[in-house]
Structures are given as structure tokens and as C-alpha cells.
Design a protein that fits this description.
Shape: elongated
Number of helices: 6
Largest sheet: 2 strands, antiparallel
CATH topology of the largest domain: 434 Repressor (Amino-terminal Domain)
Distance between the termini: 19 Å
Strand content: 5-15%
Mean pLDDT: 88
Structural class: mainly alpha
Strand order of the largest sheet: 1-2
CATH class of the largest domain: Mainly Alpha
Helix content: 55-70%
Number of strands: 2
Low-confidence stretches: none
């Protein structure tokens, strides 16, 4: 991912507001406010991980469409969709992508 996680967080807050983004990330509005102001007393690694997982967007190599890392991980760690040839091809392409979690 080329975008810095703080840039991703700032863009999401600018678009949707602090309260909805905080709720989506599972943090309080005040935590997000402190992180954005550079005044968060704790370690920001957990916040960074959650921002990357929930808000970061990647381009799917199968259909060249943007998707969140959360959606990407959900699809890549799912069982093979053997009932549908196109979905199975998508899943196989997904499993060879650099963003693939492979059930991790």
C-alpha cells in the first residue's frame, strides 16, 4: 500500500466524520481525535493495523475493482466457491495476490 495509514484515516474522517469512522474502527471518537492530532499517549500500532484492515483500499487483480482490505481478507480466506466457475477463478486469482491472507 502506498498511502500512509494516517492519510487514509484523515481522508475517511474528512469524508464521513470522526464519529462514524471511529465506530467503524472500534475506537472512541476521542481516540481518533488524539491520534489525528498527534497527541495520543498510547502506542498507535493497533490503531494503524485497524485502519489498514478496515479503511485501506486495494485493487483486486481479478476484476481491477477497489475493495477494502477487510473485504479482501474475507474473500481470500473463504472456502473455494466450487459451485460457480467464475467465482472459483476469482478465488484462485485472489489466492495468488500479494494482499491475500490465505486464512491468516
Amino acid at each position: 500500500m502506498t498511502a500512509d495509514w494516517l492519510d487514509i484515516l484523515r481522508a475517511a474522517v474528512a469524508e464521513r466524520g470522526q464519529k462514524p469512522v471511529a465506530a467503524e474502527l472500534g475506537y472512541s471518537r476521542s481516540t481518533i481525535s488524539l491520534v489525528l492530532a498527534g497527541k495520543y499517549a498510547g502506542r498507535t500500532e493497533a490503531v494503524e493495523k485497524q485502519v489498514r484492515a478496515v479503511l485501506a483500499v486495494v485493487t483486486c487483480p481479478f476484476n481491477n475493482q477497489p475493495m477494502t482490505m477487510a473485504d479482501c481478507r474475507t474473500f481470500s480466506s473463504s472456502r473455494p466457491p466450487t459451485h460457480h466457475p467464475l467465482k472459483l477463478t476469482h478465488w484462485r486469482t485472489c489466492r495468488s495476490c500479494k494482499h491475500c491472507s490465505k486464512g491468516e
